[in-house]
């Protein structure tokens, strides 16, 4: 006895497996993008801090230090420049799976000290 719907369960199961694989692939891609973006942001922060920490050595030496830090975190330093004593850094990180690149920028420099914000020790305001 054969009915007209034999094999339907196999087709539905195959369709469900394909749908699960598509969802898993999309989640993997999204996770890769988020991870690359976070890695780029972290590398930009550290590279900017490294450049600002070596600003007294000159802009070229400071940016070379930023490049070294960026390469250590497996990202590419896209630009490094100074605005007065502030280091401005841009980096790119490759997204796993060849999807593209994630970029980030950061700024680091000395903190301005205002005389009214600093109280001498032992003096009540």
UniProtKB/TrEMBL annotation:
Transmembrane domains' residue ranges: 12-36
Which keywords appear in this protein's UniProt record, sorted alphabetically? Membrane, Transmembrane, Transmembrane helix
Q: Does the keyword Membrane apply?
A: yes
Q: Which Pfam families match?
A: Tad (PF13400)
Q: Which residues form the Putative Flp pilus-assembly TadG-like N-terminal domain?
A: 7-53
Q: Does the keyword Thylakoid apply?
A: no
NCBIfam families with a match to the protein in the record: tadE_like_DECH (TIGR03816)
Q: What is this protein called?
A: Putative Flp pilus-assembly TadG-like N-terminal domain-containing protein
Q: Which organism is it from?
A: Amycolatopsis taiwanensis
């Amino acid at each position: 006895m054969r009915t007209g719907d034999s094999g339907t369960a196999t087709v539905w199961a195959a369709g469900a497996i394909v749908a699960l694989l598509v969802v898993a692939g999309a989640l993997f891609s999204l996770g890769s993008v988020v991870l690359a973006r976070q890695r780029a942001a972290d590398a930009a922060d550290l590279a900017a801090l490294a450049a600002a920490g070596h600003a007294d050595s000159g802009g070229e030496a400071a940016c070379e230090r930023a490049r070294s830090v960026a390469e250590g975190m497996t990202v590419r330093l896209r630009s490094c420049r100074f605005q007065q004593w502030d280091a401005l850094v841009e980096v790119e990180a490759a997204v796993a799976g060849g999807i593209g690149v994630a970029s980030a920028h950061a700024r680091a420099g000395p903190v301005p000290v205002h005389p009214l914000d600093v109280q001498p020790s032992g003096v009540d305001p």
